[in-house]
Amino acid sequence: CTHSAGATSFDVDLTPYLGAGNNVLAVVLTEYTPHAVLDYMSWYAHTSLLGIWREVCLFGVPKLHLGLVDLQVDWTVDRRQGEISLGVDVVNSERESKAYSLQLSISDNGRLLHRTTLGGEVEASSTDRRQAMFSVPDVEPWSAEIPRLYDFDMALELPDGQVARYHRRVGFRHVEVKGRHAEARDVIITK
């Protein structure tokens, strides 16, 4: 498993390389890679910065778990409500298909504003990409002056009672590009 170059985050699934008993994880750093030559397009890449400069985390997940989450939040000015667009992977590394339920909710300091449930089944050794869009009434837009945040929660529930949870604080704001201007609420940002 390799990460060729750059100061970007990445992740690696080590499952195929693990066995019963003790396992050893070795990290090898190489200063000059084929990709490093391309990095020379910027000045700082000529300086030797070999090392691990970001947090490293090793964790395990259940055989049925949440994968990549794509959460987009918007504010509809005309209807004065929040809009949420969600894409999430439900990953099954079991050798049989599994039924599941996704509970999605938005709340404000414990007060439930919206709840949606998505049911599904993911085939053996595969990923099910789920998409959802919904409106959230009774929310205020986020602004620098009044930074209103809400709790978005997602729970992957299995028939046997197992639950995997995902939480994120979100703010509703609409930003639009018109010509050479970006508009956010009543503010115009000029290039």
Description:
This protein is mostly beta strands and 191 residues long. It is 3% helix and 46% strand. The protein contains one helix and ten strands. The model has no long low-confidence stretch (mean pLDDT 84).
Layout of secondary structure:
Blueprint lengths: L33 H6 L24 E13 L4 E12 L5 E11 L2 E12 L3 E11 L13 E8 L5 E8 L4 E4 L2 E4 L2 E4 L1
Antiparallel strand pairs: 1-2, 2-5, 3-4, 3-6, 6-7, 8-9, 9-10
Summarize the structure.
This protein is mostly beta strands and 191 residues long. The chain is built from 1 helix and 10 strands. A hairpin with a 2-residue loop joins β3 and β4.
Radius of gyration: 22 Å
Number of helices: 1
| Straight-line distance between termini | 42 Å
Q: Please state the structural category.
A: mainly beta
Give the strand order of the largest sheet, numbering strands 1, 2, ... along the chain: 4-3-6-7
Average pLDDT, rounded to a whole number, is 84
Task: Estimate what percentage of residues fall within beta strands.
Answer: over 45%
In helices, the fraction of residues equals under 10%
**Largest sheet, if any?**
4 strands, antiparallel
Could you give the count of β-strands?
10
Shape: globular
Query: Unreliable runs, pLDDT <50, ≥5 residues?
Result: none
Q: Please write the string of helix (H) and strand (E) elements.
A: HEEEEEEEEEE
